Amino acid sequence: MQVRDAMTKDVQLASPTHTIRQAALLMGECDCGVLPVADKDSLVGMITDRDIAIRAIAAGKGPRTTVREIMSLEVLYCFEDQDLEEVCRNISDIKVRRVPVMNREKRLVGILSLGDMAKKADGSADSVADALKAISRAGGEHSQTTAH
Q: What is the value of pTM for the model shown?
């Protein structure tokens, strides 16, 4: 199965100039916990509800803080025509719960989450479970602890 068969296609975008309040409202409207951040035609970051909680609120920043100030700059992504099992192993290794999905022209076409993979896990339920276990271990390169 390819990523395009499991991904969520309708993805809302945040702008680096949005406030975290605007981003949080958008997350509430689309019932999601992550927004890719786009500047003009480029994907420049990701912002999660956890970024807002840890990097903004816990750090004493207010609702007018811009997305740019707290977003994750490193954008790890996959391609829509990649094998779902391969991407599952990759997200397990890099300890992220979701990745933007690009086409080969590097245009955003969706987002892939552990939940998306679990819904489509025909014979690969074990790999999804393994990915969740690996991602759930504390620490790692993408940890959001305030001890950075």
A: 0.79
